[in-house]
């Protein structure tokens, strides 16, 4: 898409909304759309979103919105011996998760520059070295599910990875999984925000060269109308913009 946008082949959605008699950009969560802007312009129709993050007890992590890998290990080391940062994670799955959500800390895709010598990345590798390559069959014993359900409440595991796509499930995480207020710590990063925002199930672009741009917009604008936004939870199981 970036190459199409650079060549002027994708319509500017900001202009389409500005020219719409019913829709106004002030009615939508601009920070969601800002995450997908290219050089300050919006080229996508984004009706919904969800957030991926790591959460832990506020009584342990405070009200922080980001944390480094070194800080995580310091907190873990202050807990009783045997306390885990994450549940059921192997060396490969940990590194995959970190690169998936924190990769932009180490790789600048616009320039191709990589930085795998930062303190945060080195700390991730050191922690990965502590993890098992795989779990043996005895790990999944008769008490596994009983222990799994109580691990966060009893502080045996500190962080859970969740996707926030509706309030009901979030309420279940707070009151059911942890049993108290939680902190949205996010994934380990040197930045000031560790959570990741994603566009929902539907994300559209329009051809700037189309002879039927007005007709295409008339179709796609429906996803931004009050009628569709009111039933996002039924249609997509995400949060409306």
From TrEMBL:
Pfam families: SBP_bac_8. InterPro entries: SBP. This is Extracellular solute-binding protein family 1.
């Amino acid at each position: 898409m970036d190459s199409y946008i650079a060549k002027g082949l994708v319509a500017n959605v900001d202009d389409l909304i500005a020219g719409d008699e019913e829709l106004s950009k002030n009615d939508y969560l601009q920070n969601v759309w800002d995450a997908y802007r290219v050089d300050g312009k919006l080229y996508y129709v984004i009706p919904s979103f969800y957030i991926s993050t790591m959460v832990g007890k506020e009584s342990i992590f405070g009200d922080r919105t980001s944390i480094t890998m070194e800080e995580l290990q310091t907190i873990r080391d202050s807990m009783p011996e045997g306390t885990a940062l994450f549940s059921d994670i192997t060396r490969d799955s940990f590194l995959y998760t970190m690169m998936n959500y924190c990769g932009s800390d180490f790789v600048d895709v616009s320039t191709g520059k990589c930085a795998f010598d930062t303190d945060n990345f080195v700390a991730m590798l050191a922690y990965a070295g502590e993890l098992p390559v795989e779990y043996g069959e005895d790990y999944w014993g008769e008490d596994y599910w009983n222990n799994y359900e109580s691990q966060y409440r009893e502080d045996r595991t500190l962080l859970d990875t969740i996707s926030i796509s509706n309030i009901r499930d979030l309420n279940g995480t707070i009151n059911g999984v942890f049993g108290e207020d939680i902190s949205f710590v996010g994934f380990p990063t040197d930045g000031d925000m560790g959570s990741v925002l994603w566009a929902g199930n539907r994300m559209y672009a329009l051809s700037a060269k189309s002879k039927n741009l007005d007709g295409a917009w008339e179709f796609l604008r429906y996803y931004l109308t009050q009628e569709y936004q009111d039933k996002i939870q039924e249609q997509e199981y995400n949060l409306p913009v």
